Amino acid sequence: MASQRGKPRSAVFNFFELSEDGEHYICQCSVEKDGQESICGTKISANVGSARNAPSRASNLKRHMSRLHPKEEIADTTLAPTSSSKKGDASKHDAFKSFFGQKISVSMTGENFRRYIVEMVAKEGIPLSFFSSSAFIGLNGEMARKLGVALSRDSVRNLVIESATLRKEELVEHVRGRFVFLKMDACTRQRVNYFAINLQFVGNEGTPVIRTLAVRDTQAQHTNEYLQKLISDILEEFQIRKDQVLLVVTDNASNMISTIRKLNTTDVADGDEAQADDGDVDDFADAAARMTKIHHMRCAVHTLQLAVRDGLKEPQTASLVSKVRNMATAARAPKLHAILQRRAGKGAIIDQATRWGSTFLMIERVLELKPFLVEMAVPDLTDEEWEGVHQLASVLKRPFLATKVLQSDNLTPGAFLKEWKALIYHLPRLGGELAAGIAGSMLRREATLLDNDVLMAAVYVDPKYRVMLTEAQTARAKEALYEVAVRINGVADREDVPTAIQDTASSSSNNEDEEAETSFEKHLDVQEKSKRRRVEPAVAERLSAVENFRRDFYTALPEVEIINRESNVTVIEAIPRYPELVRAAASAVTALPCTQVSVERLFSALRFIRSDLRGSMKTDLLEAILFLRTNTFFGKDC
Fold this sequence. Notes:
The protein is α+β, with helices and mostly antiparallel strands. The chain has helices at residues 57-68, 86-100, 110-122, 134-147, 153-175, 224-237, 254-269, 284-289, 300-312, 315-331, 334-343, 358-368, 370-375, 383-406, 413-430, 433-449, 453-460, 471-491, 514-530, 545-562, 571-574, 580-590, 597-609, 619-631; strands spanning 9-10, 16-18, 24-27, 30-33, 36-39, 43-45, 78-79, 180-189, 192-202, 208-217, 245-250, 295-298. It has a 5-stranded mixed beta sheet with strand order 10-9-8-11-12, sandwiched between helices. A 3-stranded antiparallel beta sheet has the order 2-3-6, covered by helices on one side. A two-stranded antiparallel sheet has the order 1-7. Strand 2 (16-18) and strand 3 form a beta hairpin.
């Protein structure tokens, strides 16, 4: 493969052999085929095109190497030519200059250019000043001018806010007439108090949809009167009536609880109930007006973390956790941390009170590093204490895994109740003061957590987990489901209300202990077989329209209960098989969120957008960015 005289030869030729006829270069790189190594053998033409811009042999060979053998390193140098000529060097210089002097055409519209700018700001967190920087102007300034896109700070700011406004208008139309659930929480960032609201409802495809409504500066006011007005203003902005709100999920803060009570009190004070003070109700709108209560539910994940915290307060457990924490703190000293990173590939971590499951993660990491910590004489524990640490890890692992499951966006109310009950079922079987403490706290908090009729209705329509309801809870569930059905009929004349779930989807949990999972499922199967329910429909010679509906609705419920655990279907699959009278209400309550974790994620995005370097960002821009970031699926339609 001798090179032509006067021309350098690229090192890429070292990976090829010239065929006997001189027509092809044959690749000699090793490749793996069917578990055995062999020669690539790809043939590449050795002929050089006659056209001026035809690719050279070396470029063809390099292209083959980059595509099929990217791990092979090709030296940057070329083999020395046998001779050179000034004329050849000049022609190379001209070709080089010609190549880099070329201009290219780009297929881009003004709409797409603006959309990508919004994506950079909302999704990637790019500061507004970046678009007027010399680097960005140098790369895209000419394109922006020709497309009529202004890149000044104020122009980009207005573009982001206008994009958010358009998305809000789309959301207004999307939720018109739908029954919705709200999730609320508050946080502090850079000495500013923020209040956020998320929306959850059944989408067109029958699956739960989560959207951000607002993130507002509370002006350091946390009273229930102020929060009630703030919520009312946000609902009015999105044209959501209070009678569309079935339930609100918050944490256990007292101001949040009193705010929901205030919302209901204000709604009654508006006089909506006065239109049917006495006499029989014969109109669905009047009946629905009497059923406008906004139910409240405490966040299940927050409640579980409080139960875990109660268990960790047991004196002996608290003392052992404190010793593990001291050991982790000592291991984080710079010298020891460097040794652990070098030898174990990881370092110790310390738990944080506000981080869910962090105590388990700290204990688990200490157990992983135990051989190294003992060797480095880090404050050690006795054998009995190490055994206790292992017991702590095995107990805390259960609520840690349950917390992961409860944070799923696709979690159905039935799946939530199953995870909650399964945790209470398994913890006592692990033994120890910690397990008993967590299970006991969960049982004490369960009465408040599950004191919610809409939640009971959502579990009732789930054939896999209906069996977990008591007789009293089942009665409450049926009445709540009936009230939702009446409310749907009450607004049907004014709005189009989605009535059915069409797609099949189910909540799944990645439980590592499959054997324990199966045992709890069998436990539920036994309960299912032991229960027999009978419903006696009300009979009357002369009934109003609403009373007729109530009679027909309760008459249809036995058909719902026919589909049970033995049917082996998810709630999403079961609802289309329910009687038509029940289907719309069942679909609506299935979207009930049992946690407000999505709001916590919103606050994580807030930390990213309003960083320490962007503390002067105005609230309207911040809200627009967060609205777009959480409600827009960049790269595809919302």
